[in-house]
Amino acid sequence: MRRALWIEQLRRRVLPMVPRKTLETVRRWKHHSGLLHPTGCTLVERPAGERVLVLAAHPDDEVIGCGGTLRKHVLAGESVVCVYLTDGAGTCGAPHLPEEEKRALIENQARKAGAIIGLKRQIFCRERFLSAAEILDQVVRICQEEKPEVLYLPFVTDSHVEHIEVNRLLLRLLESAAGASRTTCVGYEIWSPLSPNRSVDISGTLAVKQQAIGAYRVAGDAVDYVHASTGLAAYRALLNLSGKGYAEAFFVAPAAEYGALVRSVLAG
Predict the structure, then answer these.
(1) pTM for the complete prediction?
(2) Residue 182 DSSP class
(3) What is the CATH number of the domain that holds 85?
(4) Which end of the chain is more exposed for a tag (fewer CB within 10 A), N or C?
């Protein structure tokens, strides 16, 4: 009883921080699609699929948003490929470094993080901004090569403008890449908590996630992402783990339905 009261008080503090129209859109869509679990979120071992593709707006998004779950995919023998859409040189970390040197250093750190997680392949678009027209062509080609069953990307309600842009890219991808509409989209959270319908227990892979985030020393120079992401994972354990251990939370839906949600949110 006391725990239920505490959770309700927490909800009352957090929900006012999320735009009302966004909450209404997500709730309405979840109810309409039949994906709303009686408790609001279902605990799964990991999103189902042997071929996994991750879209990261910046190097480090992949490990902050879903590093523990990606490690579980790897341990299950599944193929995990990550595409870094921009070079991440716009980070506030290491401001004394020239941009070219910072870009090369970040890519090297991304490779180290990928090795820690166990990524099969890492693809660097090396663009400064997500608006670059070449990015879509590269992602379409990668999807045709990898034929992903699961596609991770930042959730559309994230507060970072380039994380939102990844969702615009997804819409163009669904129109351009044959077979992309048959994948399952998994929205992950970074800067803004999302309204999840799936959670994954990462208690056993948290240490690997922390180590991978720690490999990004340039980004860590500006923000303690290890501490912040660990705190979020502890909070997400409230969903299905009775507040014990650590979890990552996601919004999971078939690509066509996820795309419909993205259009609805962006239109609002």
Answers:
(1) 0.86
(2) G
(3) 3.40.50.10320
(4) N
